[in-house]
Amino acid sequence: MLHNHQDEQRAVQARVAIGCVVLAHYPLNHHPARGAFEYIHAYFSGTGSSSGGGSSSSGDDSAEGSAPAMLCHLFTIIFVASTTAVSLLVNDLGDVLHLIGGTAASFMIFCLPGLLLMSSSVQKSSSEKLAADGLRVSSGSRLDASETDLMNARTPLLSAAAEHGLKATGLLFYSPRRSWATGLALLLFGSLMLVITTVTVFVR
After folding, report:
1. What is the pLDDT of residues 173-202, one digit of tens each?
2. Is the pLDDT of residue 70 over 80?
3. How far apart are alpha carbons 156 and 133 in whole angstroms?
4. Average pLDDT for residues 155-179, to the nearest whole number?
5. What is the pTM of this model?
6. Contact yes or no for 201/99 (Cβ under 8 A)
7. CA nearest neighbour of 122 among 170, 189, 175
8. In Å, how far are 14, 19, 22, 148 from 8, measured between CA atoms?
9. What is the mean pLDDT of the chain?
10. Cβ neighbours of 41 (radius 10 Å)
11. Is there a contact between 33 and 27 (Cβ–Cβ < 8 Å)?
12. What would the 3-class secondary structure string for 85-146 be?
């Protein structure tokens, strides 16, 4: 629309306004993205608490939950370079909206509820197993050596699973519940939708 009115003053003002919006939306989008990156880094590296992922207000790189400064600078460069490359190479916003809508929507609608269902099922199943083991011990049931060793070996894992769910056990932890099977079905379906969306965007 602006190309049809290149010499008009209002078109120039509109371009200036769009430029200001672009300059303002970069930090607004980059800050939560970098915060998520720092949270993921802290989780997988074992540094910091699970509650923090943002940058420290004091600017200290060694603060709890913050990633090293070099990684933050690298993430910023990749973020700006990738978004700039997309804006220069993509002429049809329909493809961008199709990709974002297909991937984000499939994750939020199918994958995320599936993961929550599986995690809740793991927590309930682990709590029940811990309660059953405790009942057997408190009731004075006779246990052979193999049963005792198995119980002692699985107690730490069950305790972690009962408290944190999939966050402590991973996706390979099985729970004999319908909610776990339903969550797995949602997760697989969402992953399939994500793959189909990506293929239809890049393969024509």
Report:
1. 667 778 888 988 999 999 998 888 888 877
2. yes
3. 12
4. 73
5. 0.58
6. yes
7. 175
8. 10, 17, 22, 84
9. 75
10. 19
11. no
12. HHHHHCCCHHHHHHHHHHHHHHHHHHHHHHHHHHHHHHHHHHHHHHHHHHHHHHCCCCCCHH
